[in-house]
């Protein structure tokens, strides 16, 4: 029998790519989202690509009663992948209460339902922001967490603790996936990052600038002690990232996980500077990018990239796509999006 998986935040960027991977791997999917940062056009693309019409609940997961309606209609849900959250680091510095309320209330409600409806597997979208302002990389899962650099990062640190405490005496097993910098789009060109709020992540900012949706862009900080002065990050293709969720579920469903909670880094394992990313974009697309250099931005750490050997060893996950694939697919997607 097919396992039924609830994907929260499923019309969003990483959620929609993960739904495709789940469907391709034989899972049945139910999706929930309140549309605060996405719309249902991603479900149309999923229908075209997989032939599956994914059941959709347009609900705010901060509303416990509304959240329970999903489980009343689908009491046979055995796995949850919880993507739903607000994710803009800068906005979280300006509106911390909004971030604490949205990201933590929704998490508590969905955990409450996971325990009540005897869900077996719970995968959480954590983030490398939990490591805070680290001084050396690569970081592995045992690297001590520093003070979070933003309220957003704090919601992920607290979220990890809430999950650990809440499921301790239940049947739920959980995997916390600490994503590094997801980027790129589906190779079909039908699906990609299409946020309602202006994106703050580097790759969509680059493609939006190149296509003319933004007048120009700023590289925040060019005086860091890195090889060219700009920040270093670990860019992971969203299609590779999606696969980590499916493998994580499989690991739990096959009873391979002994501890209630386990943590995995999901990154490519090396770092590129902001200026190197811009170079890669220009090289792959032949476009010239207009950008200016600006001051450092509050909440940004200088350099962070992953050691993902634990995910490779336990889940059998490793990245297969590189920065050129990221740029190619992100650019195809941006051009398609701008024609709509
Ligand atoms: N994209 C990144 O750079 C990145 C990096 C690390 C971690 N993450 C985490 O991964 C997850 C998915 O990120 P994404 O890039 O796909 O973002 P996204 O904004 O595209 O997707 C999140 C989805 O959650 C929905 N949502 C938010 N609050 C909700 C609520 N209360 N009820 C119902 N739906 C709600 C939004 O409408 C959106 O569709 C988030 O938890 C994010 O914090 C993202």
Brief rundown of the structure:
This protein has 340 residues and is of the alpha/beta class. The protein has eleven helices and 13 strands. Helices cover 41% and strands 17% of the residues.
Description:
The chain has 340 residues and is of the alpha/beta class. 41% of the residues lie in helices and 17% in strands. The protein has a domain at 4-184 and 235-267: Rossmann fold, CATH 3.40.50. The chain has a seven-stranded parallel β-sheet, with helices on both faces. Strand 2, helix 2 and strand 3 (56-58) form a beta-alpha-beta unit. Helix 1 runs parallel beside helix 2. The longest helix is centred in the first third of the chain and has 21 residues, at 96-116. The mean pLDDT is 96. The structure holds nicotinamide-adenine-dinucleotide. Residues 9, 11-15, 33-38, 60-62, 83-87, 102, 106, 125, 127, 179, 181-182, 195, 201 line the site of nicotinamide-adenine-dinucleotide (NAD).
